[in-house]
Amino acid sequence: MNGSVRYPLCRPGDWPVTQEAFCRIISSGENVDIILWHGFPFAGTHSGEYCGVLLRQKKEINNTIIYPVLSLYPVRMDMEKEGWFQMVRKISPDIPVRAVTLTPAQAEYLITGKILPTALFRVTLSPW
User: Fold this and answer.
1) Which residues are registered as beta bridge partners of 72?
2) What is the number of other CB atoms lying within 10 angstroms of the CB of residue 107?
3) 8-40 burial: b if 16+ Cβ within 10 Å, else e
4) Alpha-carbon gap, residue 57 to 67, rounded angstroms
5) Going by C-beta distance under 8 Å and a sequence separation of 6 or more, which residues neighbour residue 43?
6) How far is the CA of 20 from the CAs of 31, 45, 108, in angstroms?
7) Cα distances (Å, whole numbers) of residue 25 to 16, 44, 56, 57, 62
8) Which superkingdom (predicted)?
9) Does residue 4 sit within a domain?
10) pTM for the complete prediction?
């Protein structure tokens, strides 16, 4: 590395630091479907409301169209994230955003890796 390439200081999947950065992720022209989710997956010491974002994108690679699903790491819901979610749902009707409530099992399985994020685009989800 000669220093000419600039890499982000966060890992893929990390939550953006600002609301503006969050909006840039959501408003990407590659997104064809977006799920903003929240749920209460765990009991006991890890109980609480969690949230996450799933982005289904359309990409062309070697003349083949694929639809990868990207995810921001699930985190505990707080007032800041809730405000971001509300704002994103209002910014543009052109952005395909679904706000849903996951069942405790769906949320836990998603967080623990027992199901892949892409599975949630194939099932009926309860509106938030």
Assistant:
1) 53
2) 22
3) eeeeeeebeeeeeebbebbeeeebebbbbbbbb
4) 5
5) none
6) 17, 33, 29
7) 9, 33, 12, 11, 24
8) Bacteria
9) no
10) 0.82
**CA–CA separation, 64 vs 13, rounded Å?**
25
Task: Give residue 63's Cα distance to chain centre.
Answer: 27
Q: Would you say residue 44 lies in a domain?
A: yes
Note the pLDDT tens digit of each residue in 42-100. Answer: 877 778 999 999 999 999 999 999 999 999 989 999 999 999 998 888 876 677 889 99
Domain extent at residue 44: 19-123
Helix (H, G, I), strand (E, B) or coil at 74: strand
Measure the CA–CA gap between 125 and 73, rounded to whole angstroms: 19
- Give the number of domains in the chain: 1
Structure tokens at 44: 């006991």
Asked, for residue 14, whether it belongs to a domain, the answer is no
Residue closest to 75 by CA, chosen among 105, 46, 43: 46
Q: Name beta bridge partners: 36.
A: 53, 99
